[in-house]
Amino acid sequence: MDEIKVKNIFAAVSDKSILAPLLDSLKARPSGRKPFRLKPWKTERPGLDGFDVKFLGTQGTVDYLKSKGFDAKSVVFGFDFDGRVKSLDKKVFVAILANPSEANHLSELAKLGVEPLNAVIVDLYPLDKSNFPESMDIGGQALIRAAIKNYKNVALAFDGESIRDLVEELKFNKGETTLNFRKTQAKKAADFIAERTELESGLIVNVLDVKDK
Protein backbone atom coordinates (compact mmCIF):
# COMPACT_ATOMS: atom_id res chain seq x y z
CA MET A 1 0.00 0.00 0.00
CA ASP A 2 1.48 3.34 -1.04
CA GLU A 3 -0.65 6.10 0.47
CA ILE A 4 -1.95 5.52 4.00
CA LYS A 5 -4.45 7.74 5.77
CA VAL A 6 -3.24 8.67 9.24
CA LYS A 7 -6.05 8.07 11.71
CA ASN A 8 -4.33 6.73 14.83
CA ILE A 9 -1.13 8.31 16.16
CA PHE A 10 0.83 6.89 19.08
CA ALA A 11 2.90 9.52 20.88
CA ALA A 12 5.41 8.99 23.68
CA VAL A 13 7.94 11.78 24.11
CA SER A 14 10.08 12.96 26.99
CA ASP A 15 10.64 16.39 25.42
CA LYS A 16 7.09 17.61 24.90
CA SER A 17 8.26 20.74 23.04
CA ILE A 18 9.08 18.69 19.94
CA LEU A 19 5.34 18.16 19.44
CA ALA A 20 4.91 21.88 18.76
CA PRO A 21 5.06 21.65 14.93
CA LEU A 22 2.20 19.16 14.95
CA LEU A 23 0.10 20.77 17.65
CA ASP A 24 0.58 24.24 16.18
CA SER A 25 -0.84 22.91 12.91
CA LEU A 26 -3.86 21.40 14.59
CA LYS A 27 -6.74 23.20 16.16
CA ALA A 28 -7.80 21.61 19.42
CA ARG A 29 -10.85 19.43 18.93
CA PRO A 30 -13.91 21.12 20.46
CA SER A 31 -16.65 19.33 22.36
CA GLY A 32 -18.59 16.96 20.15
CA ARG A 33 -15.39 15.30 18.93
CA LYS A 34 -15.30 17.09 15.60
CA PRO A 35 -12.20 16.54 13.48
CA PHE A 36 -8.96 18.32 14.11
CA ARG A 37 -8.33 20.85 11.38
CA LEU A 38 -4.93 21.75 10.07
CA LYS A 39 -4.26 25.43 9.55
CA PRO A 40 -3.68 26.15 5.85
CA TRP A 41 -0.22 26.80 4.48
CA LYS A 42 0.67 30.46 4.03
CA THR A 43 2.27 29.43 0.74
CA GLU A 44 0.60 27.92 -2.30
CA ARG A 45 1.23 24.42 -1.06
CA PRO A 46 -1.87 22.31 -0.46
CA GLY A 47 -3.41 22.20 2.99
CA LEU A 48 -6.06 20.08 4.70
CA ASP A 49 -9.72 20.87 5.15
CA GLY A 50 -10.09 18.35 7.96
CA PHE A 51 -7.73 15.92 9.63
CA ASP A 52 -9.57 13.46 11.83
CA VAL A 53 -6.96 11.83 14.03
CA LYS A 54 -6.96 9.95 17.31
CA PHE A 55 -4.06 10.44 19.73
CA LEU A 56 -2.95 7.49 21.84
CA GLY A 57 0.10 7.40 24.05
CA THR A 58 1.83 7.04 27.37
CA GLN A 59 0.30 8.80 30.37
CA GLY A 60 2.71 11.74 30.53
CA THR A 61 2.35 12.57 26.84
CA VAL A 62 -1.42 12.09 26.97
CA ASP A 63 -1.67 14.46 29.95
CA TYR A 64 0.33 17.04 28.00
CA LEU A 65 -1.89 16.70 24.91
CA LYS A 66 -4.98 17.09 27.06
CA SER A 67 -3.50 20.21 28.68
CA LYS A 68 -3.23 21.68 25.19
CA GLY A 69 -6.88 20.94 24.49
CA PHE A 70 -6.56 17.74 22.49
CA ASP A 71 -8.43 14.51 23.01
CA ALA A 72 -5.98 11.73 23.81
CA LYS A 73 -6.15 8.31 25.40
CA SER A 74 -3.52 6.60 27.49
CA VAL A 75 -2.91 3.03 26.36
CA VAL A 76 0.02 2.38 28.70
CA PHE A 77 -0.77 2.15 32.39
CA GLY A 78 1.67 1.84 35.25
CA PHE A 79 5.45 2.05 35.10
CA ASP A 80 6.55 -1.25 36.56
CA PHE A 81 9.90 -1.89 38.23
CA ASP A 82 10.59 1.77 39.09
CA GLY A 83 9.97 2.90 35.55
CA ARG A 84 12.15 0.32 33.83
CA VAL A 85 9.12 -1.04 31.98
CA LYS A 86 7.22 1.90 30.54
CA SER A 87 6.06 1.63 26.93
CA LEU A 88 6.82 -2.09 26.59
CA ASP A 89 3.15 -2.95 26.25
CA LYS A 90 1.89 -5.79 24.04
CA LYS A 91 -1.14 -3.89 22.76
CA VAL A 92 1.04 -0.99 21.64
CA PHE A 93 3.47 -3.19 19.76
CA VAL A 94 0.87 -5.32 18.00
CA ALA A 95 -0.87 -2.10 16.91
CA ILE A 96 2.43 -0.89 15.43
CA LEU A 97 3.47 -4.17 13.84
CA ALA A 98 0.12 -5.34 12.45
CA ASN A 99 -0.48 -5.40 8.71
CA PRO A 100 -3.95 -3.90 8.11
CA SER A 101 -4.19 -5.64 4.74
CA GLU A 102 -4.11 -9.03 6.49
CA ALA A 103 -7.55 -10.11 7.69
CA ASN A 104 -6.13 -12.32 10.43
CA HIS A 105 -4.12 -9.40 11.81
CA LEU A 106 -7.24 -7.25 12.01
CA SER A 107 -9.11 -10.11 13.66
CA GLU A 108 -6.43 -10.53 16.31
CA LEU A 109 -6.35 -6.78 16.93
CA ALA A 110 -10.12 -6.77 17.37
CA LYS A 111 -9.86 -9.49 20.01
CA LEU A 112 -7.41 -7.27 21.90
CA GLY A 113 -9.63 -4.23 21.47
CA VAL A 114 -7.06 -2.17 19.59
CA GLU A 115 -6.82 -0.57 16.15
CA PRO A 116 -3.75 -0.50 13.90
CA LEU A 117 -1.54 2.55 14.29
CA ASN A 118 -0.70 4.67 11.26
CA ALA A 119 2.00 6.86 12.82
CA VAL A 120 4.37 6.71 15.77
CA ILE A 121 5.96 9.75 17.38
CA VAL A 122 8.59 8.92 19.98
CA ASP A 123 11.86 10.41 21.19
CA LEU A 124 14.60 9.02 23.41
CA TYR A 125 15.47 10.69 26.66
CA PRO A 126 19.08 11.89 26.88
CA LEU A 127 21.83 9.53 27.92
CA ASP A 128 23.07 10.56 31.35
CA LYS A 129 26.68 9.57 31.93
CA SER A 130 26.29 10.00 35.68
CA ASN A 131 23.36 7.58 35.69
CA PHE A 132 24.40 5.03 33.09
CA PRO A 133 23.23 2.39 32.22
CA GLU A 134 20.00 3.34 34.06
CA SER A 135 19.54 6.21 31.58
CA MET A 136 19.30 3.85 28.61
CA ASP A 137 15.93 4.24 26.91
CA ILE A 138 14.73 0.69 26.28
CA GLY A 139 11.08 1.28 25.45
CA GLY A 140 11.69 4.20 23.13
CA GLN A 141 14.22 2.30 21.05
CA ALA A 142 11.88 -0.69 20.86
CA LEU A 143 9.05 1.52 19.60
CA ILE A 144 11.29 3.06 16.95
CA ARG A 145 12.53 -0.34 15.81
CA ALA A 146 8.97 -1.66 15.59
CA ALA A 147 7.91 1.27 13.42
CA ILE A 148 10.99 0.82 11.22
CA LYS A 149 10.12 -2.85 10.74
CA ASN A 150 6.58 -2.00 9.66
CA TYR A 151 7.46 1.03 7.51
CA LYS A 152 5.05 -0.19 4.84
CA ASN A 153 2.14 0.62 7.13
CA VAL A 154 3.40 3.04 9.78
CA ALA A 155 4.94 6.50 9.52
CA LEU A 156 7.63 7.35 12.07
CA ALA A 157 8.89 10.54 13.66
CA PHE A 158 11.61 10.43 16.31
CA ASP A 159 12.87 14.01 16.79
CA GLY A 160 11.93 17.61 16.09
CA GLU A 161 13.06 17.58 12.47
CA SER A 162 11.27 14.34 11.59
CA ILE A 163 8.08 15.61 13.25
CA ARG A 164 8.22 18.73 11.08
CA ASP A 165 8.70 16.47 8.06
CA LEU A 166 5.67 14.42 9.10
CA VAL A 167 3.51 17.54 9.43
CA GLU A 168 4.60 18.72 5.98
CA GLU A 169 3.84 15.29 4.52
CA LEU A 170 0.35 15.23 6.05
CA LYS A 171 -0.46 18.71 4.81
CA PHE A 172 0.87 18.14 1.32
CA ASN A 173 -0.88 14.77 0.93
CA LYS A 174 -4.14 15.64 2.66
CA GLY A 175 -3.68 13.54 5.76
CA GLU A 176 -1.84 10.67 4.11
CA THR A 177 1.75 9.47 4.07
CA THR A 178 3.41 7.99 1.00
CA LEU A 179 5.48 4.83 0.94
CA ASN A 180 8.52 6.84 -0.15
CA PHE A 181 8.16 9.13 2.86
CA ARG A 182 7.83 6.19 5.23
CA LYS A 183 10.91 4.57 3.72
CA THR A 184 12.91 7.78 4.12
CA GLN A 185 11.85 8.22 7.73
CA ALA A 186 12.67 4.59 8.50
CA LYS A 187 16.17 4.98 7.06
CA LYS A 188 16.79 8.15 9.08
CA ALA A 189 15.52 6.43 12.22
CA ALA A 190 17.75 3.41 11.63
CA ASP A 191 20.77 5.72 11.32
CA PHE A 192 19.69 7.50 14.51
CA ILE A 193 19.41 4.23 16.43
CA ALA A 194 22.81 3.13 15.14
CA GLU A 195 24.38 6.37 16.41
CA ARG A 196 22.64 5.98 19.76
CA THR A 197 23.90 2.41 20.08
CA GLU A 198 27.44 3.58 19.36
CA LEU A 199 27.14 6.21 22.10
CA GLU A 200 25.91 3.58 24.53
CA SER A 201 28.77 1.30 23.57
CA GLY A 202 31.23 4.09 24.31
CA LEU A 203 29.65 4.72 27.69
CA ILE A 204 29.82 1.03 28.54
CA VAL A 205 33.56 1.14 27.87
CA ASN A 206 34.19 4.40 29.74
CA VAL A 207 31.67 4.41 32.57
CA LEU A 208 31.74 0.71 33.34
CA ASP A 209 35.48 0.57 32.69
CA VAL A 210 35.24 -2.39 30.34
CA LYS A 211 38.50 -3.30 28.67
CA ASP A 212 38.65 -4.84 25.23
CA LYS A 213 40.38 -8.20 25.22
UniProtKB/TrEMBL annotation:
InterPro entries: MGS-like_dom_sf, PurH-like
One cellular component term from this protein's GO annotations in UniProt: cytosol
GO molecular function: IMP cyclohydrolase activity; phosphoribosylaminoimidazolecarboxamide formyltransferase activity
Swiss-Prot/TrEMBL GO biological process terms: 'de novo' IMP biosynthetic process
Highest taxon, organism lineage: Bacteria
Name recorded for this polypeptide: Uncharacterized protein
